[in-house]
Design brief:
five-stranded mixed β-sheet; alpha+beta; globular; 5 strands
Length: 89
């Protein structure tokens, strides 16, 4: 089980990125959240088995292509009480 913090740069606001991230994450059984940042990036915290987290990233790259210019990740401490994947506002 891992938990990572992600920052997505590029054309990631106003294109359904958060809803798509939530849909894929829930389908893969991942927990965490995703939200827009005021600087135009999207931030997410994703928790689950490493292969599923990697699958989420692969599907986002596939769906958003060149619009997803950069993904920066860093590991963070897993949360024991994280039970779903949600969009934060």
């Amino acid at each position: 089980m891992e938990r990572c913090s992600f920052h997505f740069d590029g054309r990631v606001q106003g294109v359904g990125f958060r809803a798509t991230t939530q849909q894929i994450a829930r389908g893969l059984g991942l927990t965490g959240w995703v939200r827009n940042l005021s600087d135009g990036r999207v931030e997410a915290a994703v928790q689950g088995p490493t292969p599923e987290v990697e699958q989420l990233l692969a599907e986002l790259r596939d769906r958003f292509g060149d619009g997803l210019e950069q993904v920066v990740s860093r590991p963070v401490e897993p949360l024991a009480d994280d039970e779903s994947f949600r969009i934060r506002y």
